[in-house]
Specification:
This protein is an alpha+beta fold and 142 residues long. It has one domain: RutC-like (60s Ribosomal Protein L30, Chain: A). Helices cover 27% and strands 29% of the residues. The protein has a 5-stranded mixed beta sheet, covered by helices on one side. Strands 3-4 form a two-stranded antiparallel sheet.
């Protein structure tokens, strides 16, 4: 799978999109923003269709900030250390990993790390702008 990294989405508030501390890049929570707008529909507009597409976009936005942090030198990114995914699922949905696996798979395809990252997936009541998905991450750099 070829991953095309978009331009980083600017912060939409009083925070930094990423912060570098020692050899770690902390990426702020990312929403499924594409071309300046929240993507709200996909496929048959089922929760699974929309959330899956949103997680793909969220992951691309995370990776865009990581690449920006290392001046687009992918060789400086050693691994993803931690991924946290937030979902707003319907009451009868309990397969959260189906959505967060999308991000994990994309990050692993992009970095080909020696060791897999840790992850937490949380179901919550709401997210900014009505998104169904948000994620943040921590990456280790050389």
């Amino acid at each position: 799978m070829t991953i095309i990294i978009p331009k980083p989405v600017p912060a939409n508030g009083n925070y930094a999109p990423f912060h570098i501390e020692d050899k770690l890049i902390y990426v702020s929570g990312q929403l499924p923003i594409k071309d300046g707008k929240l993507v709200k529909s996909a496929g048959e507009n089922s929760f699974l269709d929309i959330a899956s597409l949103q997680m793909e976009l969220v992951t691309l936005n995370i990776l865009s900030h990581v690449m920006s942090a290392v001046n687009n030198d992918q060789s400086k990114i050693e691994s993803c250390v931690k991924l946290t995914a937030y979902l707003v699922p319907p009451d009868d949905f309990f397969e959260h990993a189906l959505i967060s696996n999308i991000a994990s798979d994309m990050i692993n395809d992009f970095l080909k790390p020696k060791q897999n990252h840790t992850r937490t997936t949380i179901g919550i009541k709401s997210l900014p702008l009505g998104s169904l998905v948000e994620a943040d991450a921590i990456f280790k750099i050389t």
